[in-house]
Inverse folding.
């Protein structure tokens, strides 16, 4: 008898049932022949998806590094007059600080800003001086906190919930303000960050007399050839072609990091939430390490700190528990700049590594300065609570805080600098 597998249902292949008592038990025996593909097991599908995501991550990292190199090459084509004006403006450390804040708030990512700074410092010709770049890196640290502050605004409809969420969001702000307020004057007076970073970069790039050479230099240069060709097609002017190359490279950096963060977040979101939740039960040092590792994994401190905001709003964590995770995220976000620095080539490659190390040392110095002593550690927490209480009573203060601090103040400094000049 020929028939479907169940109740005459037609399926791929067929079943053959023999009524004869070949087995001696008087029952028909059916043999199934099916030429349809055997479905893959869940573990096989997971492996395929994991491999695909891994290849996507590697491809996006490559595009990101191509953008960093393109930014360096485009910068050297701008011409000495324009570069001299930019360098002169950023010689004022407060202008450099404001440039870092404003640039980061506009692109909503300190990783993008610091990666671009690395590219400018490592430019083969007319590089951005490291001394000018240090305040810009510090400004990027402040600017990155705007994301989780904006995330806390989603809780504005519920007063107590908003108070808790806004306090956790702004403790990151106040920590970075304190670090800059102390370390920027110290750096201007002693240059310790630049000198220590320069020494470390020398050790990393010149061990045994061997100069640093990026292992993927050839691939990156080859990938830049068609981009430079497009820039040259757009305009015959070398200076304008450099501007086009910088715009394309900036778009590559921004897009690659955005997609990289989304890819890693979709792959790791459940694990990240579980890891962060466990961190609150651990010692503060372990909580910092969790914040560092998670941020390095997802390439975004904003994701790590923004996860804390709704947990605080729901009263699942306290401000004291969230604070060390936030500090760890501050250090973890420096990994992106270090990756960018390892990709740059040319005579100023070591300078790119130096400014990336400045970013790392600045965040580590801030933690060592503020966190170990309880009285000092309470300052950013108390300031965050006070601001949260004020904002909870009148939501306008929260909006004014974001508008003035992250956008109004940098714009005011820029206008004042132009007027004074």
């Amino acid at each position: 008898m020929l028939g479907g597998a169940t109740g005459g249902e037609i399926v791929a292949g067929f079943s053959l049932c023999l009524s004869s008592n070949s087995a001696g038990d008087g029952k028909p025996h059916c043999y199934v022949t099916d030429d349809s593909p055997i479905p893959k097991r869940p573990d096989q599908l997971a492996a395929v998806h994991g491999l695909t995501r891994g290849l996507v991550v590697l491809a996006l990292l490559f595009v990101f590094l191509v953008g960093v190199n393109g930014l360096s090459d485009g910068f050297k084509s701008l011409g000495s007059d324009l570069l001299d004006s930019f360098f002169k403006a950023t010689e004022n450390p407060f202008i450099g600080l404001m440039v870092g804040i404003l640039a980061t708030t506009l692109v909503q990512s300190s990783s993008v800003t610091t990666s671009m700074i690395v590219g400018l410092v490592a430019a083969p010709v007319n590089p951005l001086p490291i001394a000018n770049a240090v305040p810009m890196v510090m400004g990027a640290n402040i600017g990155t906190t705007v994301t989780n502050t904006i995330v806390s605004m989603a809780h504005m409809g519920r007063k107590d919930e908003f108070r808790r969420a806004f306090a956790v969001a702004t403790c990151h702000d106040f920590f970075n303000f304190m670090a800059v307020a102390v370390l920027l004057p110290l750096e201007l007076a002693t240059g310790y960050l630049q000198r220590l970073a320069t020494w470390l970069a020398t050790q990393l790039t010149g061990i045994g007399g061997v100069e640093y050479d990026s292992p993927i230099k050839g691939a990156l240069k080859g990938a830049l050839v068609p981009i430079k060709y497009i820039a040259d097609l757009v305009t015959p002017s070398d200076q304008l072609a450099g501007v086009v190359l910088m715009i394309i490279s900036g778009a590559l950096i921004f897009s690659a990091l955005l997609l990289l963060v989304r890819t890693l977040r979709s792959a790791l979101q459940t694990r990240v939430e579980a890891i962060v939740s466990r961190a609150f039960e651990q010692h503060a040092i372990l909580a910092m390490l969790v914040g560092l590792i998670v941020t390095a994994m997802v390439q975004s401190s904003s994701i790590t700190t923004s996860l804390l905001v709704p947990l605080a709003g729901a009263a699942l964590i306290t401000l004291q528990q969230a604070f060390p995770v936030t500090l760890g995220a501050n250090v973890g976000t420096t990994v992106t700049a270090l990756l960018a620095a390892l990709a740059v080539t040319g005579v100023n490659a070591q300078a790119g590594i130096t400014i990336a190390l400045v970013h790392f040392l600045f965040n580590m110095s801030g933690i060592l300065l503020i966190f170990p002593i309880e009285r000092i550690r309470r300052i950013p927490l108390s300031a965050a609570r006070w601001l949260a209480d004020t904002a909870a009573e009148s939501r306008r203060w929260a909006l004014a805080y974001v508008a003035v601090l992250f956008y109004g103040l940098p714009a005011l400094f820029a206008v004042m600098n132009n007027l004074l000049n």
In short: The chain has two domains: 4-33, 49-420. Residues 1-16, 207-214 have pLDDT under 50 and may be disordered. The CA atoms of residues 288 and 328 lie 4 Å apart.
